[in-house]
């Protein structure tokens, strides 16, 4: 048993309940840190497990839109590297047009700094952090589990951690997600580089991002400025690795950035859940990438991680308090309903937007760059004053356009 379960003088506690955490969160990214924060602020004993040492690099553009900002802990200070007031749109390098806003559209962060700050907020709220720990599996039945109110979290070294509830936030290749039975129906490949640039280049990009609608169906590229570094990336459906790599190389060359040596080059897969994919099993919940929760069109995941993580932490507290399996299942179903009613609806609209974008990227580009109401809608979404789902619901023209696409459900 871990030393976390010993009293301060080194002797084991007499009360067996002190050896059981109320909530164990697996993964210390935005979803896991948010879950740990929510459970800790409710006064519960929370253990946050992370396989890496923090801070650690994550492939991510680092855009913080309104819904992300609104889901942060009270008083949280964003470690912003830039504030975006302008967006340059292009169609595979052509028909370039820049739209500007007097107010900030969204902020940009480096993920190592952002994630570390979220974890710090969770630990200040009372969560205990353990890094360098790999979870191999969770068990809800069998000899390792003393009763139906307990989940065994088994670590790679053979140690077993006991919990009343577990939140899986261990990324898109989640072992907790596999335990829950998460099903995925959209997998995309993202390639990204962190490119240090001279001051003259950095100044040209300050306060402005580029979004390029790419040559592959559903693909796009981006440039996000972060002081003396540009985050440059592309994303497209998995299965076209060679073409995606060529797009990335052409994209950086076209922008005059291929001559600079990247500080980091990376690739990763993003995964979206199916609409009927489970979000829980027994006393185990999943959130963020582990649940396949992200926006299908843009593949934006930070806001989904923060929002689902907070809800997972809140419902994990209720599951931890559940006296029996029936009540635990009721709380888990309530969590799933809350996710589907909010993020699930947004994902359904995002799927339709992706289908429309795959079929008619030039039309989407023309509308965004030439039709002011479309730009205004983009601004409202990035600032968090509305969502794509609300726009479709409240504007008949947009609703009819997406209805003609079909698929995706609502």
TrEMBL record:
Give a GO molecular function annotation for the protein: oxidoreductase activity, acting on the CH-CH group of donors, NAD or NADP as acceptor
Enumerate the InterPro entries for this protein.
Answer: FAD-bd, FAD/NAD-bd_sf, Geranylgeranyl_Rdtase_fam, Geranylgeranyl_reductase
Q: Which SUPFAM superfamilies match?
A: FAD/NAD(P)-binding domain
Taxonomically, the superkingdom here is Bacteria
Per the UniProt record, which residue ranges are transmembrane? none
**Domain FAD-binding, residue spans:** 22-303
UniProt-listed PANTHER family: CONDITIONED MEDIUM FACTOR RECEPTOR 1, GERANYLGERANYL DIPHOSPHATE REDUCTASE
Protein name listed in UniProt: Geranylgeranyl reductase family protein
